[in-house]
Amino acid sequence: MPLSGPQLERIVENALAEDLAWGDITTDALVPYSLEDKATILAKSEGVLAGAEVAALVFNRVDSRLEVKFPLEDGTRLKHGDVIAIITGSVASILRAERTALNFLQRLSGIATETSRYVEAVKGYKAVICDTRKTTPGLRFLEKYAVQVGGGKNHRHHLGDGVLIKDNHLAALARLGIPLAQAVRQARERAPHELKVEVEVATPKQAREAAAAGADIVMLDNMSIEEMRQVARELGGKVLLEASGGVTLQTVRSVAETGVDVISIGALTHSAHTLDISLELANKP
To answer: In the chain, is it the N or the C terminus that has fewer CB atoms within a 10 Å radius of its CB?
Structure first.
């Protein structure tokens, strides 16, 4: 996923407007634009760097005269004390951009770091770690990018990105007398032909029904380890099997051992802790 283009620019512009729409009263009152210095962005904890280009764009949007250098690229494994970036120029401009740039770096690096932990936990198994649409409103583009930086894969980017028949769809259709198998056939007939059809199921019986009806992917939602293992024995290689629901770093390896192809984890984006990253001016008193 390339990290560029108008979507990225809109996100950065919105973030800066949120912080600077009424100016920076403190900096405006105290720091002359002519005062220059060098600032260093430092890693204060171990993790995986993500968001370097976003942070650089923030500084350049605030002041195109700032010299911004990122010696480390996204995907770099950080150690405490690593220099992530060096910014040289107007101190006032650096201070205006600081929080927004760090917010992006901390958030995206946190997601990349959390994703890398899950990827490492299932090493040796075929299961792919995947995200969900449980993202921060307005930031999905960036958060899914961070998942990729951490070694994970992206599920749907939006509701038009594939057919996913979930439990609430099936509940609504049941009121109309439409069973699971018919829902799958109807989706395949009416949705664009190039899109895959996925069905969320809660039992091995439903998994068999979905596969028999022609689903491309069967999502095993909140099933037990034994149930997932049973479904993988019966349907493995016939349809793509995705495990989802309540998977944690402590349980993900056991899930991978069942033989599923994909493990989707909302916690990659909705519960990742931000990485500790700070900015320090060179000439501190």
So the answer is: C
Left, alpha or beta for 124 (phi > 0: left; psi -120 to 50: alpha)?
Answer: left
Domains of the chain: 6-118+273-281 (3.90.1170.20), 122-270 (3.20.20.70)
Phi, psi for 277 (deg, rounded to 5): -135, 140
Helices (H), 122-179: 140-149, 167-174
User: What is the reported pLDDT for 6?
Assistant: 87
Q: Is 175 helix (H, G, I), strand (E, B) or coil?
A: coil
Beta strand residue intervals within the chain, DSSP E:
36-43, 47-48, 67-69, 77-78, 83-90, 128-130, 163-165, 197-201, 217-221, 240-244, 262-264, 277-281
**Residue where the block lists tokens 């120029």:** 89
Q: What is the structure's pLDDT at 121?
A: 98
Catalytic residues: 99, 134, 166, 200, 221
Dist CA 262 CA 259 (whole Å): 9
Ramachandran region, residue 71 (left: φ > 0; alpha: ψ -120 to 50; beta: rest): alpha
The C-alpha atoms of residue 249 and residue 255 are separated, in whole angstroms, by 10
Give the mean model confidence (pLDDT) for residues 222-248.
96
Give per-residue burial for 101-132: e unless 16+ CB within 10 Å, then b: bbbbbbbbbbbbbbbbbbbebbeebebbbbbb
pLDDT (tens digit per residue) in 53-91? 999 999 999 999 999 999 999 999 999 999 999 999 999
Other beta carbons within 10 Å of 222: 12
Mean pLDDT, range 225-243, rounded to an integer:
97
Split at pLDDT 50, 70, 90, the class of 1 is low
Asked whether the whole model's pTM tops 0.90, one would answer yes
What was the pLDDT predicted at 11? 95
